DNA sequence: CGTGCCATTGAGCCGGTTCAAAGCCGGTGG
DNA sequence: CCACCGGCTTTGAACCGGCTCAATGGCACG
């Protein structure tokens, strides 16, 4: 970054913030003045239905930008919650527009990020809409594994994955019971095993094959 | 627009183009040098699985931007096809970056569009993942109706909707048969009826209630 | 030592799927 | 002018993947 960019980021960045597990960061309908970047910890992005059903849209990992929607549109259309303790970098939404005027390459990155999230949701939609429970699950696990691997969180053959089975079930539109049973099958077949907040994958290739994962690692994400 | 903007758009816009029904506009994996805006006609955005299953991601209506993903990322991750004859405005992808440098407000619009599409996919994911067939269908029909209404295509109580039931089924992750039977129920209940390429809604309020649609009309979309 | 959250497992059921067949066009060629 | 064909919609019937209900067990915490 240039000096000028640094100076701008100084103004754009408000500060840092640490939150407890379970803290709601942004809520549906809110018009928050803040945008965050996750520095550490894990979170969930989800939508609720009036009767309590929940759709998890994505898991939030370190490096992810949070609240771009609220930044660029009027208001938030989904909720964001910290699953573990999280450290966040806080940005001032009001400076977003001046970023577009003065730092086009950063602006371009933002479009890239939004576009990349759209791409992910398209994949998720395809998984939920078309794939069987086993296929979706394998898709989700391999996707998560690849991303955490790219974040350099791989230790041995396992990555941290501190969520409940209910969270994954809500992400895949499956029931908790069926998610549990399908996970058990993957474990029995010695392909992948998720316990105690860690996901171990012993046969990634087969996992991706089951999940009908289309080639290639996920694209690298510019940091904001 | 200012003169300067007009001059730029002149360079950015390559020309116009008309395509036949069924023409593929962009394909998965392609790295197309073009970005389009639909001027008239209808299209589909979808992903295919290796075994032929298809997930429709969204319907493309006049005014929609096509191919932003290919523009901003390396390559396309879904297919786009013209359902009816379409008239398109063609832009030069290579000028995209200079747009960011010289026209920040247009750049902002692009992020807005990408973000808005992400928002839509999140809603779709929630419909497919959590809602019953009847709920999803009502959601989809009311969504489509609202959008076409906003495009000023409402005549009487009906809007054009020139797709096959199979297309809608693939969008909602339902079988063709069940989609048909669920549509029949909405027709019997005198709520909405879709035939001969037109969707008539006689009780929009009830349709949105069944579909668990959260308030408000969809946000207006900046034209590119 | 109780209490609550989460994972696990069994049993029965149901919303939605698959299979199959028939009806309804509009287009085409004889 | 009519017979035929292909794409789409409609309807009936049987089946099944995944859901719901229910109970148990492990573990952390007060």
UniProtKB/TrEMBL annotation, chains A, B:
Keyword Cytoplasm belongs to the record: no
Source organism superkingdom: Bacteria
CDD domains cross-referenced by the UniProt entry: CAP_ED (cd00038)
Name this protein carries in UniProt: Crp/Fnr family transcriptional regulator
Lineage: Bacteria, Pseudomonadati, Pseudomonadota, Alphaproteobacteria, Rhodobacterales
Location of the HTH crp-type domain: 131-205
Record-linked SUPFAM superfamilies: cAMP-binding domain-like, Winged helix' DNA-binding domain
UniProt-listed InterPro entries: cNMP-bd_dom (IPR000595), cNMP-bd_dom_sf (IPR018490), HTH_CRP (IPR012318), RmlC-like_jellyroll (IPR014710), WH-like_DNA-bd_sf (IPR036388), WH_DNA-bd_sf (IPR036390)
Gene3D superfamilies hit by this protein: Jelly Rolls, Winged helix-like DNA-binding domain superfamily/Winged helix DNA-binding domain
SMART domains linked to this entry: HTH_CRP
Keywords: DNA-binding, Transcription, Transcription regulation
């Amino acid at each position: 970054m240039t000096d000028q960019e640094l100076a701008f980021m100084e103004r754009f960045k408000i500060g840092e913030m640490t939150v407890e597990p379970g803290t709601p960061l942004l809520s549906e309908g809110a018009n928050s003045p803040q945008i965050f970047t996750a520095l550490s910890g894990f979170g969930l992005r989800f939508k609720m239905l009036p009767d309590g059903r929940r759709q998890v849209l994505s898991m939030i990992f370190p490096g992810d930008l949070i609240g771009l929607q609220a930044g660029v549109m009027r208001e938030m259309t989904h909720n964001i919650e910290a699953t573990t303790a999280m450290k966040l970098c806080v940005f001032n939404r009001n400076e977003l527009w001046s970023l577009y005027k003065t730092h086009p390459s950063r602006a371009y990155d933002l479009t890239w990020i939004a576009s990349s999230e759209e791409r992910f949701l398209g994949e998720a939609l395809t998984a939920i809409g078309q794939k069987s429970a086993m296929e979706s699950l394998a898709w989700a696990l391999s996707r998560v594994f690849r991303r955490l691997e790219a974040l350099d969180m791989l230790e041995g053959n396992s990555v941290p994955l501190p969520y409940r089975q209910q969270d994954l079930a809500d992400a895949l539109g499956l029931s908790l019971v069926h998610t549990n049973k399908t996970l058990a099958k993957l474990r029995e077949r010695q392909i992948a095993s998720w316990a105690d907040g860690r996901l171990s994958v012993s046969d990634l290739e087969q996992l991706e094959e089951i999940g009908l994962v289309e080639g290639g690692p996920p694209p690298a994400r510019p940091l904001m």
